[in-house]
Amino acid sequence: MKTLKLIGPITQILTMDHLPLKGALKDEQLEILENAGILIEGGKILEVGNFESLKAKAKTLGAELIELIGDHLAVPGFVDCHTHICFGGSRARDFAMRNSGKTYLEIADSGGGIWDTVTQTRILSLDELTEKTIQNANRHLAQGVTTIEVKSGYGLSVEEELKMLRAINKANDSTSADLIPTCLAAHMKPRDFTGSNSEYLDEISEQLFLILKYEKLTNRIDAFVERSAFSPEEIKPYFQKAKDSGFDLTVHADQFNPGGSEIAILFGANSADHLEASTEKEISLLANSEVIAVALPGASLGLGCAFTPARKILDRGGALAIASDWNPGSAPMGDLLSQASILATFEKLSTAEVLAGITFRAAAALGLEDRGRLKAGSLSDFCLFPTSDFQEILYHQGTMKPVQVWKKGEKILDKRF
Ligand code: NIG
Ligand code: FE
User: Residue 265: which pLDDT band, with cuts at 50, 70 and 90?
Assistant: First the structure.
């Protein structure tokens, strides 16, 4: 039998319902329910509405009442649609070198960069890597992030990429957060591969794709389209094979040079992520496409470079999600709400735009329609903040954390105890 529970009274619920997937949003468009409750049945929301009416209904249905005392604000559980939280080691040395003015090449030549993390990830066993992924996922979950995309990309051989994706899937079984695995074998050509970029991609697509399908490890393929990684021309045949095999696509695009977002549009990718170097041309193309633009302020903060032109993307009518890019190199902070709040101050984003970017718009970037809004039929994933005013959330720039996190109908964090 499924458990019925009524949670309330909640001072304000931001449902994020009735908001469009694309374009700019004003805070006046937010649906705010006051003195409200959330009636859940198992992992799904049965109804969101006035607390007193729901209380009467709950009584008739025999639902358990989870009574809240004091002010609470409910928002959908956050969705982080771009992370690299499955990794070994640390890149603190890279970070210090970059802050002391060393260039990307100098850092790579001294043993840093993505390859360093590949080396430190390869030495871990499947179980060790699984454990690290669970720890990172649980830290995110405690901050209200109930769905987390997790990329491979620090294995960079058929066997090591498989180890990473198996670890992410195993971690998914041991954390309450939903982990959405993505294969990023096309992160860079590994230093120990003697052939060309295209030969590496051929090997991956010929040997890895079938196993990913067979073991149901992921249905998502990502690639880093960049001068230091793979060119648009090198990625085209790789993406064509991935698409023909039925994978969804996503792209690390326009991070330092434009080019990747056009590939994302050409192949109908779910999302184009980064976009710090997108020009007017890419911004317009993206805004007129169905591809979700994903801003990664954590990478801008980690590298000390420009933010994704979020304001322009929204004003031209694009769909904008915001993700943490949590990784050991360019984005070590791993705090989605802080990063999204900081992006808001620099890009002049409304609260509605920021919250949409880390809820239903981020869910759409993962092809998920069952979460990101608090409405009947959606997953009962939500967090409660200790405030009576939704504007307090971004005002605290991420330092106000949820006091309760609910995932699929279970309270998995309660700060009062
Ligand atoms: O999204 N841009 C490429 N990949 C990661 C960085 C990975 C790393 O430096 O380890 C990113 O920023
Ligand atoms: Fe990334």
Answer: very high
Q: How many A from CA of 84 to the centre of ligand 1? A: 8
Residue 39 near residue 8, CB atoms below 8 Å: no
| Residue 130 confidence (pLDDT) above 70 | yes
Alpha helices (runs of H) in 28-125, residue ranges in sequence order:
51-61, 92-99, 104-109, 114-122
Tokens of 319: 């769909």
Ligand 1 shell residues, CB under 6 Å? 84, 114, 117, 224, 252, 255, 299, 325, 327-331
CA atoms of 349 and 52, how far apart (whole Å): 35
- Res. 1: pLDDT tops 70: no
Residue 326 CA to ligand 1 centre (angstroms): 9
pLDDT given at position 108: 87
pLDDT in tens, 175-226: 999 999 999 999 999 999 999 999 999 999 999 999 999 999 999 999 999 9
Q: For residue 331, give the ligand nearest its CA.
A: 1
How far is the centre of ligand 1, averaged over its atoms, from the C-alpha of 327 (Å)?
7
Q: At the topology level of CATH, where does 79-365 sit? A: TIM Barrel (3.20.20)
In what helix (H) or strand (E) does residue 312 lie, and over which residues does it extend?
helix 310-315
Residue 2 clears pLDDT 70, i.e. is over it: no
Superfamily name with CATH number, domain 4-76+373-414: Urease, subunit C, domain 1 (2.30.40.10)
Residue nearest atom 1 of ligand 1, based on CA coordinates = 325
